[in-house]
Write a structure and sequence with these properties.
Blueprint (H helix, E strand, L loop, with lengths): L1 H52 L4 H17 L4 H9 L2
């Protein structure tokens, strides 16, 4: 009887550990996807402002500032790659 009880306890702890470790990963994935979406939207708005008003317009400068703010909030360290990729579209 004690052997079965020990096995059940070990199984329960293992399952609880697996469930607990998977929750933060999915939350991080969701946060990452939201950040990527916000960055992409800000890049699109910058691109549109440049197309409509010119590279050095006040609208483009404002959109650049907004893009940098979104990146700072998201902790995006590779924003130079995003600029390069986005400029090619």
């Amino acid at each position: 009887m004690t052997r079965i009880f020990k096995m059940l306890c070990i199984a329960s702890l293992t399952i609880a550990g697996l469930l607990a470790s998977s929750i933060p990963a999915s939350a991080d994935d969701d946060r990452h996807e939201q950040c990527e979406r916000r960055i992409h939207q800000a890049e699109d708005k910058l691109h549109e402002a440049v197309q409509r008003h010119g590279e050095d317009s006040k609208q483009a400068r404002k959109r650049r500032e907004q893009l940098e703010q979104v990146r700072r909030n998201c902790g995006d360290r590779d924003h130079h790659d995003h600029d390069h990729d986005h400029d090619q579209h």
